[in-house]
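**Discrete fold encoding**
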Amino acid sequence: MKGEFRKMKRSAAGVVLVLVLLWGMGTAAFGAMNPMVAESVAMIESQLGAIPADGGGKKIGVLVITLSNPYWTEMKKRYEEWSSEMNVSVEIMSAPTEGDLKSQLDTLETMVVKGYDAIIATPMDPFNLIPGVLKANEKGIPVICSGPAIDAKALKDAGGRLDGWISATFLDQGRLAAEDMVKKMGAEGGKVAIIEGIPGAGQSEARKKGAGDVFAQAGNVPVVSVQPGKWDRNLAFDIATNLVKATPDLRGIYCANDVMALAAADALEAAGKREGVLIYGTDFIPEARTAIKEGKLQGSTTFSQAAWTRGAIVYALKLAEKATDLPERLNIPIMLATAENIGDFEGWK
């Protein structure tokens, strides 16, 4: 994957330079843009070919997982900022809670009836949205899978198709956090734990594997526990509380999102066991950004939501216009925010 991103960066080098200069002058939605965000935008757009100058007022439906999670409320903001910048109408919908598979499918089926020019959807698991995608196919509405994949074989077997896919390499999110944790632990190593999200959810499984592979390769970093926190703050708090009781010499915890990482930090603080334990999350939500600055968390892996949402909207517009020069999948790079580089993330979106 590293080689793939290096190739993308070389092919987009000129675009990166132009975009950094342009974004530095500012946009109506974002003001002056962080250079790393501008580079991510350029990497996304280098995969898309010619970019529409204007969205022409097209209507795009966006289905996220749940707006009860701060990660998705931030993603919603990014979509709304670009909608005014790009002259498109974007409506963001979601299920009420994480893991409500039926409600998310019901929401997608409602969106199909609304007749959007395109739909961008993030599934809760590889299978739950397949019936809704089939209905969108029947209506001729392009569907982009955003994030974890809808199972391609199951969808094909059902007679359906996706029109596009935008995703990060979620395995790298776990890998980068674990690599930094192992580095900070040094030659001594130590016992670690993983708090995953919902078992079977694509992003959770990939993050768990990415971290677990690094710990296994280190040789001196045994994983003493892998437990599902189901993206839930209270559950993660309880898991972390029990972890330090069972393993008082625990040296590190990787959590598959920041909500659970922040809860783990709170649990260890309440138990008087926070000192000496490295805690990493994923998503770089605003609360995690503050926590890294204050030393409450050691790091969080992230990608630019501004680049992701712009890429998804452009992808949707081009599909609605029946463009034929599109890739099957758009990729976006992963980054790790830590106390050492947190200054580079000022203005990060």
